[in-house]
Write a structure and sequence with these properties.
Elements lengths: L2 E5 L3 H13 L3 E5 L2 H11 L3 E5 L7 H9 L6 E5 L4 H9 L4 E4 L4 H19 L5 E4 L2 E4 L4 E4 L2 E2 L4 H11 L6 E2 H9 L7 H15 L7 E6 L3 E6 L4
Parallel strand pairs: 1-2, 1-3, 3-4, 4-5
Antiparallel strand pairs: 6-7, 7-8, 8-9, 10-12, 11-12
Helix pairs in contact: 1-5, 2-3, 7-8
């Protein structure tokens, strides 16, 4: 599984962030100082780094510079100081984002998801592949996998997941889905969509995916919801 490096000398913060990272489907790697952060980065090759600025031995800026000399991995700086010049310096030396304490762990995870979605899409030479957290959909091959496990789905079920997951947290009405999946000339009713979603859920729920779900919006329709985002 993919690792996320959390570097902070405050154990309470690393414990909280580690719990949230695990819920998201990643393996947390914790460092209590800057020197250890560099060692852990070299050892585990994480997909993202959460980096406190004020740490013993090496501060976050120095660690960020050292990582940038050899890797383009996403880096989010976390600090108790929010002056503009410090934010600008952090971004200038290669950080991808900047969060000021105190922060909401849910906000941190939302920023992680956003950055990793951009990275996954940017790294894919095939625009027919969608990667979101543990979910991967290849619309050209009509395949879907969760945490590396391929889920056998019908063509229409793959198309449904492609539409919903490709628009996280957007609500699609039943009529939207009928038109998109069956065409505007289809004479079925909303119960067709409900039955279709029910069968789809039964298949994908055979593999745990706590970081995302297909949520029913009563009276409206459905949406692909990422944990911690409204």
């Amino acid at each position: 599984m993919a690792h996320i490096l959390i570097a902070d000398d405050n154990k309470d913060i690393t414990d909280i962030l580690s719990a949230y990272v695990e819920k998201e489907g990643y393996v947390p790697v914790v460092a209590a100082d800057g020197a250890e952060a560099v060692n852990m980065f070299n050892k585990y090759n994480p997909v993202l780094v959460l980096l406190d600025v004020m740490m013993p031995y090496k501060d976050g800026y120095q660690v960020c510079r050292e990582i940038r000399e050899k890797s383009e991995v996403p880096i989010i700086l976390i600090t108790a100081r929010g002056e503009d010049f410090e934010r600008i310096m952090g971004l200038d030396i290669g950080a991808d984002d900047y969060i000021v304490k105190p922060f909401s762990p849910s906000e941190v995870m939302a920023r992680i998801r956003a950055i990793l979605r951009r990275v996954n899409r940017g790294n894919s030479d095939d625009k027919n592949v969608l990667n979101i957290s543990t979910l991967q959909i290849n619309i050209e091959e009509y395949s879907l996998s969760i945490s590396g496990k391929k889920i056998p789905l019908t063509k229409k079920e793959i198309e449904t997941m492609w539409i919903l997951a490709g628009n996280p947290n957007k609500v699609f009405t039943r009529d939207n889905l009928l038109d998109s999946l069956w065409g505007i000339d289809y004479y079925g009713d909303s119960r067709t969509v409900d039955s279709h979603i029910k069968r789809l859920r039964a298949k994908i729920d055979k593999v745990d995916h706590p970081e995302w779900s297909i949520r029913t919006i009563w009276g409206l329709g459905y949406k692909f919801e990422l944990e911690g985002q409204d």
